[in-house]
Fold this protein.
Amino acid sequence: MSIRRKDCMGEKKLYFIGIDSTPLWIINELKRKYDLSGFEHFANNGILKEMKSTVPPVTSAAWPSIYTGLEPNEHQILEFSKIDSNYNKQLIYYDSSSPRPFWEALASKGFKCLVITPAVFLEDKKMKNVDMITGWPLKPRYSSRELEAQARRFMFDGEPDIGIQLNSGRLSLSKASQLYTKSIRARAKLAQHLISTKEYDMVFVCFTETDRMQHYALSEKDWERTVAPLYVAISDFMNWIFSFSKNNPTKPLLMVASDHGAQPTHHKFLPNSWLVEKGYAELRGDLSGAAKPKLGKSEKGIAKKIKVAISERMASSSMRRKIYDRLPASLQKMGEKFVEENLDQGEASEYLKILETDFDMKNTRAFASVSNGNMGMIWINDKRFSRPAVSAREKGALKKELIAELKGAKSIEKGKLMDNVYDAGKFYRNVTKFIAPDIVFQLTEGYTNDFSHYSKSFFVKPEAARRGDHTMFGIFGMVGMSAQASASMKKSELNLCNIAPTITKYFGIKGQSRNSLI
Ligand SMILES: [Zn+2]
């Protein structure tokens, strides 16, 4: 028998605001010129500090860590895709049946939850005590007709789907900023209405527009002009929550967290081109030396093939089928989005996008795949794959050699290219759902990476969607906790995996309270 709602109702309230891709430096820069008093309220009346993201610091891995309190090797989502034994990339998403998110732990004990657009949570499942609007990157779906009607009333329809227009330059950054700000404000208005008309114990509202805007805008000279309005809108929502909570005798706990940070990027490193040049990897004969001068017919053909392959793969996985089957139109859109964002073949692309089938695997000892941000990943082509080129005996030495080579690699400015190079075994122990990378590297400031190939250089200019990219440290803020908890938080390094245990402990649910911050 669960705790009777009557016994616990109203005793505890928690409001949690999630923001995708917010580092402390952006808040500090913007608050000098814009009204970010909502963020400052956290800093002045509680804490607002950096929080460490997952390895790699990507949306698809980091939010599930926030939802479950587990590291990527435990929830087993590494990135938007994983590589299988035949070198094929497959899309993956967080499957909430195991491990379950914090709001389901709360709901099962009778606490009423409102969850609005949690990033990468796409499942349209009904659960008692949870009012849910599903999150990015699909269009929102609603746990009830009533909720859908309310969203319509406040003209909220999810994050605007404008990536394609932004990539092609058909939409200006100013216009994008307006559209993103509008959806943030609509989501906030909807949340305010629901919070003030219904009795919720826990409310989680997640904003993802910031990440999209920053990917396009951060390396612009006047990035503040297009990025600031989004933060001002979120700050206004925070201020509303603060004033709404002020007179509540239960003294609600207020939290804000970001899944990772962000930075402007000026250069892109292509690890596969680097591996080819150093002799660790070989392209198929007909492709070696191939650099695509401009988007030609053949590349359009490649793009189309990728699209078809991805939709086929998406349709073939049972978990994805569960998620996507009911919405064939969105499924198609998702496939296109994936192609566009991860294998961008837009007009600006001057280099060949590497497909798993583009390598001569018999002569490829190591290759990069999956990850395309400030952190990159390299797999050693050993017996976990169908065409291995490295024996178990050779693997250790090869890994050491590669790590040493990468550590010594020079940036365009002839400084260090890598901030860190890790033996990935450290991060992905005991994974069963994906083939773990062998090496993880973290690029120096201003650099991003992807798994393309360009025969002339392993450095290229980032495309429109990669002029800003992720970093390791997001933010965490809290108001309403004890002075003791506040003092200890100020001292310690915070991690995304602290969030779910903090929330469940606050509501008196036993679980992984070992990582709780209160
Ligand atoms: Zn993110």
